[in-house]
Amino acid sequence: MRAKEQALNIHEVARRARVSTATVSRAINRVPTVNPKLSQRVWKVIKELGYYPNTQARALVSGRSRIFGLIVSELTNPFFPEIVQVFETIAVRHHYEILLTSTMNDPEQMESSVRRMIERQVEGVAVMTFGMEEALLEDLKLRQVPLVFVDVGPRRPRVSNLRIDYLAGIRQAVQHVAALRHEKIAFITGPHTLKSAMARKQAFLKAMHEIGREPDMNLIVEGNHTMEGGQIACGHLLALTKKPTAILCSNDMTAIGVMRKCYEDGISIPRDLSVVGFDDIRLAQFMLPPLTTVQMSQAELARLAFDALLAEVEREEPLPEGSEYVLKTALIERESTAICREGAVLKTNHPAPIRTVG
């Protein structure tokens, strides 16, 4: 009988590899004490047979699920797919699976996600939501499951924080538009309920003070990190008597909404208005004109999150105040920003070319 017609199980693998089922089990669970030659033989047979080990059985034998949870806000936001893809790629390389869930910013959805992860006995959870109530994760903390947060995690054992250096990139953005002779600089924030959004707003205010400018609070409006929110916020700014000549946005989705509103109103970017985003999602470089933005590498964020979880799982004794990792940001200059025409003495009607990166 051909191999594919036989029952594919651990006993058949053991028979063909000429080892015991215990050796097969240890090889599958990558127990370091197993003989490397035997392990290689076992995996060769596994590939030949197309055998897929029972992950639940493996968990029972090893006491480990080899599953990491990954929680994101919403998969429809272009910021998150690259995080998911990179996180999963690294996980597979380290023989981990991921349990992915999106909260849609709904507390009940978050509680359901946490419950599923407890049931699956995840070894760690990366909470990539840029703002989450600590009480919702109490069950995971009580079970001493390693956690990774972006910006908002408490300093406690088995908790890792990925700190985003918002100021560095936003400072570059403010200095960039100021160097282009813009004085009426607006900022569209994210939701004030998100700590990350407030951190970006504070970074903007500090950067303005650093260049000796007093921020005009009428030019700071709240958005919601969506394209629709960007359109609405831009409408408020354009309705002002003293309209801005440059708008900085808390994320790229907001900036894309601003660009859409300007298109609808016949406002030329960057001739009439300069626009800067934040995140550098892949779509940013394909906008017309390509969007100048502050880059926060999604790939690097995913790598840091996985490395933090893996380090915590492999750590024998947890650090008393957890771990902290820093993600740098930097301005990527494209074509949505140009010299301010308002009050400027120019020899030509065309703005000076701006260096494009990326």
Give a quick rundown of the structure.
This is LacI family DNA-binding transcriptional regulator. Helices cover 40% and strands 16% of the residues. The chain contains twelve helices and twelve strands.
Plain-language structure description:
Keywords: DNA-binding, Transcription, Transcription regulation. This is LacI family DNA-binding transcriptional regulator. Residues 8-62 form the HTH lacI-type domain. It holds the Pfam family LacI. GO terms for molecular function: DNA-binding transcription factor activity; transcription cis-regulatory region binding. This protein has 358 residues and is of the alpha/beta class. It folds into three domains: 3-62, 434 Repressor (Amino-terminal Domain) (Orthogonal Bundle); 67-165 and 298-328, Rossmann fold (3-Layer(aba) Sandwich); 166-297, Response regulator (Rossmann fold), CATH 3.40.50. It is built from twelve helices and twelve strands. The chain has helices at residues 10-17, 21-28, 36-49, 55-62, 79-93, 107-119, 138-142, 166-179, 195-210, 227-238, 252-264, 298-314; strands at residues 67-72, 97-102, 124-128, 147-150, 159-164, 185-189, 220-222, 246-249, 274-279, 292-295, 323-327, 330-332. It has a six-stranded parallel beta sheet with strand order 2-1-3-4-5-11, sandwiched between helices. α1 crosses α2, α2 (21-28) crosses α3 and α5 packs parallel to α12 (298-314). The longest helix has 17 residues, at 298-314. The protein starts with 9 loop residues before the first helix and ends in a 26-residue tail after the last strand.
